[in-house]
Design goal:
It is a single chain. The protein is α/β, with parallel strands linked by helices and 269 residues long. It has a single domain (3-268), classed as TIM Barrel. Helix content is 42%, strand content 16%. It has 11 helices and 10 strands. The chain has helices spanning 3-22, 25-32, 72-82, 100-109, 123-132, 146-158, 170-180, 200-206, 224-233, 242-246, 250-258, and strands at residues 51-56, 59-60, 64-65, 86-90, 114-117, 136-140, 162-167, 184-188, 214-218, 237-240. The strands form 2 sheets. It has an 8-stranded parallel β-barrel, surrounded by 5 helices. Strands 2-3 form a two-stranded antiparallel ribbon. Helix 2 (25-32) packs across helix 5 (123-132), helix 3 (72-82) packs across helix 4 (100-109) and helix 3 (72-82) packs parallel to helix 11 (250-258). It binds indole-3-glycerol phosphate. The site of indole-3-glycerol phosphate has 15 residues, from strand 10 and helix 10. Pathway: Amino-acid biosynthesis; L-tryptophan biosynthesis; L-tryptophan from chorismate: step 4/5. It catalyses: 1-(2-carboxyphenylamino)-1-deoxy-D-ribulose 5-phosphate + H(+) = (1S,2R)-1-C-(indol-3-yl)glycerol 3-phosphate + CO2 + H2O. Its EC number is 4.1.1.48. GO terms for molecular function: indole-3-glycerol-phosphate synthase activity; phosphoribosylanthranilate isomerase activity.
Length: 269
């Protein structure tokens, strides 16, 4: 594992230990039975064209503060009106400024399926996700050893969550396929070791993904042309955060990226 990711994972484990003391796992388990009905996440990604998973992201280690002042409700509703297929809500606190409360708020504000975007290393976080109203979680292959990947994947499916399995290179893709036979594969164009971005990463790995898998390209997208290129090569969905969060009008920006912007709408980006 590499440095930035390693540090975030260490901090996450500490945070989970602290939260576990406040709300014991058994309490969360009891609350799962009263959790909301799920919304179909994976299904939303395989509609015709490239589906957009629009992300709520306040700040990041690479970009610093991205957008201040806007509420989750405003952003999530703008994404829904703009045509997002699903939402991603970053709930990691120390590095991304997110909370589980953000996810709860997004759930109340829209009808879209929601991905809990976080560094999931413990089953406790999966239970939290369900109780907060998530329909899917992210598992990052680079952050987990194979045994933990198997356990967490199984736990998530057992509580009816879909799982987006994130890879960044060929060996991680092999792990995702061989160890858990992942259905939904996220190719992250950003290296979580140094936060450098190269959207070519998606094209390099795509040919190694077997037919029948759902592919999501993640990170670094700014233009309609880039999204069109993904569509041409058969990528199912794209995960976009920063470009939408920085846009003066996130709804208009999303329309442009999806191709529903109309003439002269490029200014929205
Ligand atoms: O803001 P961008 O470049 O559009 O990227 C969104 C998303 O892919 C990115 O936030 C992300 C992908 N995988 C992650 C894992 C943890 C935290 C964040 C991420």
């Amino acid at each position: 594992m590499n440095n930035v990711l390693e540090r975030i994972v260490d901090v996450t484990r500490e945070e989970v230990r602290r939260r576990r003391k406040e709300v014991p796992m058994a309490d969360l388990e009891a609350r799962i039975h009263h959790a909301h009905d799920g919304r179909p996440f994976s299904e939303a990604l395989v509609r015709p064209g490239v589906s957009v998973i629009a992300e709520h992201k306040r700040r990041s280690p690479s970009a610093g503060e991205i957008r201040e002042g806007a509420t989750v409700t405003e952003i999530a509703q703008a994404y829904e009106r703009g045509g997002a297929a699903a939402l991603s809500v970053l709930t990691e606190g120390p590095h991304f400024g997110g909370t589980l409360g953000d996810l709860e708020e997004a759930r109340r504000a829209t009808t879209l399926p929601i991905l809990r975007k976080d560094f999931i290393v413990d089953a406790y976080q999966i239970y939290e996700a369900v109780v907060a109203g998530a329909d899917a979680i992210l598992l990052i292959v680079a952050a987990l050893d194979p045994a933990d990947l198997v356990t967490l994947h199984r736990e998530a499916l057992a509580v009816d969550l879909d799982v987006l399995v994130e890879v960044h290179d060929e060996s991680e893709l092999d792990t995702a396929l061989e160890v858990i036979d992942a259905d939904v594969i996220g190719i992250n164009n950003r290296d979580l070791g140094d936060f450098s971005v190269d959207v070519e990463r998606t094209y390099e790995l795509l040919s190694d993904v077997p037919a029948g898998k759902t592919v999501v390209s993640e990170s670094g997208f700014h233009t309609r042309e880039q999204v069109e290129e993904l569509e041409r090569v058969g990528v199912d969905a794209v995960l976009i955060g920063e470009t939408l969060m920085r846009a003066p009008d996130p709804e208009a920006a999303l329309r442009v990226l999806i191709g529903h912007g109309g003439s002269g709408a490029d200014d929205a980006l």
